[in-house]
Please model this.
Amino acid sequence: MGGRAISSPNTLSSCNAIGRFAPSPTGPLHAGSLLAALGSFLNARAQGGLWHLRIDDIDPPRAVKGSVGAIQMSLETHGFQFDGDIQYQSAHTDRYEQALKALDELGDLFHCGCTRAMLGANGSCQNDCANKSFTTTEPTSIRVKVPQNTVIILNDSVLGGQNWHLGQQLSDFVVRRRDGLYAYQLAAAVDDASPLTTQVVRGRDLLDSTPRQVFLQRRLALSSPEYGHLPVIKDQYGAKLSKQQGAAALDNSHPAQNLRAALRALGQPSPPSGLKDSESVLEWSRSRWDPLRVPR
Model:
């Protein structure tokens, strides 16, 4: 099917590789978090690049006290060294508001009064809200209009070519929630287009977020980073490990062992048994990192 193709560039040189790990402060890191951190870290460091830590704290009701400290401690215990200061999305609300204003000026936004129970497939508006008027006192989300013929073409550094018929698969998604909080899609699109990020390596559970974020970046005339999506670790029932589902926190007393398990899950070579500390495991793995070995 034809459509309006929006391509994400894949031009990344070793001198400007900048990656990031962006956990939410909803609890300590678990095995799945470590996998994402390790993949993003090795991908950046293998290119001689920088690696930043960003805390995606735009959803205060879900935040757990002490999470940021626990996250930082786990990363440091496992040998990860991030560059610069920790970034916090809560400090970027002016960016998100400016982005909303720019999208509104383009005529891309509309208010939606649909509740969760009223939504259609993939959370789409089913009540023709784009053609309705709402009072300022009515709780509404703000959605972005995606033309039906919009196609997003991506070259994923792990999965290869991706072709999303966004206007049909994930149309009219939320950029500001009914409670007034900025939606993840908007915040991540804006922050990952900043000069502090040139590559985003994250879990495959976020694969369908990428075309939405690239769409926003294109509409806002922002650059897109290179994207790569890693496999996710699942529990015994086949569900993705997550803090919300009570995934066990990382055992910080065995960092090298944890890293070895994550490397196996990423299809990477096994470090020599003589490497006992996490820093040595990371350094050995950095020089041998190959995203093409990651299971698809």
